[in-house]
Structures are given as C-alpha cells and as structure tokens.
Amino acid sequence: MLKLLLALSSFCLFSFTAQEPAAPAAPASIPPEAAHMVNPVKPTAESQAHAKKMYGYDCAMCHGANGNGKGELVADMKLTLKDYTDSAALKDLSDGELFYIIKNGKGQMPGEGDREKTEDLWNMVILVRSFARK
Ligand code: HEC
Fold it and tell me: Residue of the nearest CA to atom 41 in ligand 1?
C-alpha cells in the first residue's frame, strides 16, 4: 500500500512538472557567466543596417524607432521603458547582459530566442548602444 502511495505521489509530481509551459518565462536574473561575455562582433555598415531592419520589426513597437522608449505598444501594455538616447540609460549593463536580455527576454519583453543568429544579436547590442546621443 505504501509503495502504491509513493508511486502515485511521484507520478503526480511528475505530471505536475510535465505541465510546465514549453517556453519558460524569462529568467529573473542573468547568470554571471552570461553577463561577462564580451561582444565578439565587429560591426560593419551592412551588419548594422541588418540590425536596424530587425529592430524596426521586433523592437521599435516598444522601444521606439530611435530607442527613446516611446513605441506604440507602451500605452497599451503600460510599459515603463528606458530612453536609450540618454547615454546614462544603459551604463550599468554590460554587453553580455544586453545580449542575454535581447536573446532571452525580461519581464514583459519577449526574447528573440533562436530566431536570429548569435552574430545578429551582438549587432543588435551595438545598435542599441548607438542610440545614445554622443
Ligand atoms: C513588448 C515590448 C518589447 C519588445 C517587443 C522588446 N522589448 Fe526590450 N524591453 C521591454 C521591457 C518592458 C523591458 C524592461 C524589462 C524589465 O526590466 O523588466 C525591456 C528591456 C530591454 C533591454 C534591457 C535594458 C533595459 O531597457 O532595461 C534591452 C537591451 C532591450 N529591451 C532591447 C530590446 C531589443 C533589441 C528588442 C528587439 C529585438 C526588444 N527589446 C524588444 C519591452 C520590449
């Protein structure tokens, strides 16, 4: 009887964990090894043009076409976004942290996941930083 109970409860536990959604919610914190990653990409005019195009499709509706944080979804989703044209906005985040957030998402932001190549995501990090007024 005890054995049956044990088997039953571990089965319940298993089916409970098996019901986790396929795409897990964005992780709450960035692993230190990810934060320390160094951008391996040297931007070219071509790679930045591609990043800009991608940004227009996947990011501008929230972050704004020029990164000012005033995209068209901000009001509907009640988002509070940083203004990347302010050079102070991203100063406390490393390239690795930006890469990680763009890939995996954070809070209400969906990540790019595997939709884009690693190299393209690093170009996106460079583009996001380039919004800052010099
Ligand atoms: C649905 C709206 C939405 C979209 C689309 C979106 N983001 Fe975000 N993004 C957010 C929100 C909200 C945060 C703040 C998340 C938090 O801190 O909880 C954020 C955070 C970030 C951050 C971290 C720095 C910061 O502002 O806190 C970066 C970098 C970033 N987004 C870049 C991008 C890029 C690049 C894309 C397109 C590939 C993108 N985002 C698409 C909403 C969005």
Answer: 59
Mean pLDDT, the chain, integer? 88
In a domain, 60, yes or no: yes
Say if ligand 1 is within 6 A of residue 70 CB. no
Distance CA 106, CA 54 (A): 18
- Cα-based angle 42, 45, 48 (whole degrees, multiple of 5): 70
pTM: predicted TM-score of the whole model, two decimal places: 0.84
Is the distance from the beta carbon of residue 59 to the nearest atom of ligand 1 less than 6 Å?
yes
What is the average pLDDT across 74-84?
Answer: 97
Q: Is residue 16 part of a domain?
A: no
- Compute φ and ψ for 111, nearest 5 degrees: -85, 160
Q: What is the pLDDT of residues 88-117, one digit of tens each?
A: 999 999 999 999 999 999 999 999 999 999
Q: Which domain holds residue 56?
A: 35-130
Q: What is the CATH number of the domain that holds 58?
A: 1.10.760.10
Q: Is residue 13 part of a domain?
A: no
What distance in angstroms lies between residue 28's CA and the mean position of ligand 1's atoms?
A: 14
Domain count, the chain: 1
Sign of the CA dihedral running 22, 25, 28, 34: positive
Instruction: Please name the residue whose Cα sits nearest to atom 5 of ligand 1.
Output: 59
